[in-house]
Amino acid sequence: xxxxxxxxxxxxxxxxxxxxxxxxxxxxxxxxxxxxxxxxxxxxxxxxxxxxxxxxxxxxxxxxxxxxxxxxxxxxxxxxxxxxxxxxxxxxxxxxxxxxxxxxxxxxxxxxxxxxxxxxxxxxxxxxxxxxxxxxxxxxxxxxxxxxxxxxxxxxxxxxxxxxxxxxxxxxxxxxxxxxxxxxxxxxxxxxxxxxxxxxxxxxxxxxxxxxxxxxxxxxxxxxxxxxxxxxxxxxxxxxxxxxxxxxxxxxxxxxxxxxxxxxxxxxxxxxxxxxxxxxxxxxxxxxxxxxxxxxxxxxxxxxxxxxxxxxxxxxxxxxxxxxxxxxxxxxxxxxxxxxxxxxxxxxxxxxxxxxxxxxxxxxxxxxxxxxxxxxxxxxxxxxxxxxxxxxxxxxxxxxxxxxxxxxxxxxxxxxxxxxxxxxxxxxxxxxxxxxxx
Length: 438
Fold this sequence. Notes:
This protein is an alpha/beta fold. The chain has helices at 40-49, 62-81, 97-108, 129-132, 150-159, 182-191, 243-247, 283-299, 301-319, 350-361, 373-379, 411-426, 428-434, and strands at residues 16-18, 24-26, 28-29, 89-94, 116-120, 136-140, 164-170, 195-199, 222-226, 237-242, 259-262, 267-269, 325-327, 340-345, 363-364, 366-368, 400-404. The protein folds into two domains: 4-30 and 300-434, Aspartate Aminotransferase, domain 1 (Alpha-Beta Complex); 43-297, Type I PLP-dependent aspartate aminotransferase-like (Major domain) (Aspartate Aminotransferase, domain 2, 3-Layer(aba) Sandwich), CATH 3.40.640.
């Protein structure tokens, strides 16, 4: 179990924030699936490096050369973190997971109308929308609990036999926290001569991941993830995949750093990964990302996973004891998951409940559809005519409330959450009137 003292590793873990009654309370962040706070050590590494910060590549000054060396060394650190193949794979730095998946969609698109990408019904929009305007897209179905159906995966691969270019699947759902069996999915996908992309944004910060050697049937062909979900600020994401994928074609963003030579009539493109990183890169973001990867490795992802599961189990056991709380996920503790709990309060809008938790106790949760509207619609069994509207102020917008843990959360924080939820259930009318929503 992660000790309580690990809070000291997190920036702002003791920050006091105002409540609606004018008092202050220590903030409780249960919205880590959206963004995690930074490690103290990550910020310290960035500050320590700042005096040497300079533009990378082609500079002759000492600072530029040092910055270049550290930037390129970060690729190795990140590759080792997920056990990528240093010979066959390349590590491309981007802004976030969304950009990484969009980039891959452009690189794989060759204008073949028959090419099929299989996404799934549980995906974040970022692993669905980028494929739609470039490929024929179909969706692997979920079962009655909202988990991915491997039978549906096989059925779809059979249906499009020979035409499936890629299976694009989340490693862990940002709605339910379900961990998908990515190695079994890899074996199935490769039997049909297709490639596998794992959206690791929710998986990589919480459980160990191994991309496996290229010759293994369990090999993960492409992996994406984001620093801002693994305690690294400043906006850097990662796309890892075979270097051959990125040798061909023209990058979707072109300009400085992407070329070998340019004349008025011709362009000779550079080699990946530089070819895919147009313009001056976010060096500080990369420094933060590699520092966070080292911290997570030092703490041990197995330790993090166990601790966050204990928090999940502790919370679920107590939520079950509050009448009117509806849990929207499978509660079998024997099935793999990360620390995410979607729930709703009968008779109260999800946004109202989130506002009350914040205003009464400084508890941050997320409410809505979490950029996974088709999945949430299925989980809460919406009829087809209903939609997840973007207007947060709309009292008709469907959705749920999401609790999501980081390694620094503790059981005391859950006790506070349960106390406030219990009070809400006892005084629904009072809180509805107080926060001005119905």
